[in-house]
Structure prediction request, 66 residues.
Amino acid sequence: MGIAIFRGKVHSGRAWTGRSESDLKGEQTPLWRRLLNGWMTIAARFGGVQTQLILVLFYVALIGPI
Prediction:
């Protein structure tokens, strides 16, 4: 009995039913969800960079003159 991994789920050889490509197309992530995930990734990266920049400026303003 073999083990197959399919989209993060483990199936044993007995439980593997085999799925056609047409079955998988119905389970694909919708376009709007992929676009939203992309924009959220960009926003998260921008937020991280912005936070670091604010911390650096705050550090320079307070500690720099010493």
Notes: DSSP finds two helices and two strands in the chain. The beta strands are 3-6, 9-12. Helices lie at 21-25, 31-63. The chain has one domain: 3-63.
